[in-house]
Design a protein that fits this description.
This protein has 6 helices and 4 strands; from the N terminus they run βαββαβαααα. The protein has about 130 residues and is of the alpha+beta class. It has a single domain, classed as HPr-like (Histidine-containing Protein, Chain: A), CATH 3.30.1340.10. It has a 4-stranded antiparallel beta sheet with strand order 1-4-2-3, with helices on one face. Helix 1 runs parallel beside helix 4.
Length: about 130
């Protein structure tokens, strides 16, 4: 399980399209994802939950990711929260990203992207720590 506080700096927080994109990214992975802000904790794969949280640019959220592909899921989700939101860029990224819930798709992707397997797990929690 990976759990860190992250400052949202994507320019728009998690409102409508950004929340939908976050959920689409989270659903590409088998790992469970939760976000917490102001003592409200929601499933990171629920668009209604995310939109109800009121996460704005500059908010600090606690993200928790747990599961066998947690490292990769964590990296993609934290990057999303930090990078300027660009809907067309994320649409292309999501199209190229394998669905970790589909074993056949993952096997095809691994064969086509052997370098990605070597890079997996290089992201460290220290890169996202904000401190208390």
């Amino acid at each position: 399980m990976i759990q860190e506080k992250v400052k949202v700096t994507n320019g728009i927080g998690l409102q409508s399209r950004a929340a939908a994109t976050f959920v689409q990214i989270a659903n590409k992975f088998r790992a469970h994802v939760w976000l917490e802000i102001n003592n409200k904790k929601v499933d990171g794969k629920s668009i209604l939950g995310l939109m109800a949280m009121g996460v704005y640019d500059g908010s600090i959220v606690k993200i928790t990711v747990s599961g066998d592909d947690e490292q990769e899921a964590f990296k993609h989700l934290v990057d999303f929260l930090r990078m300027p939101f660009d809907a067309s860029m994320y649409a292309k990224m999501l199209e190229a990203m394998p669905n970790h819930n589909d074993p056949e798709e993952m096997e095809r992707w691994r064969k086509e992207h052997p370098q990605a397997l070597q890079d997996q797990g290089k992201h460290t929690n220290e890169e996202t720590a904000l401190g208390e």
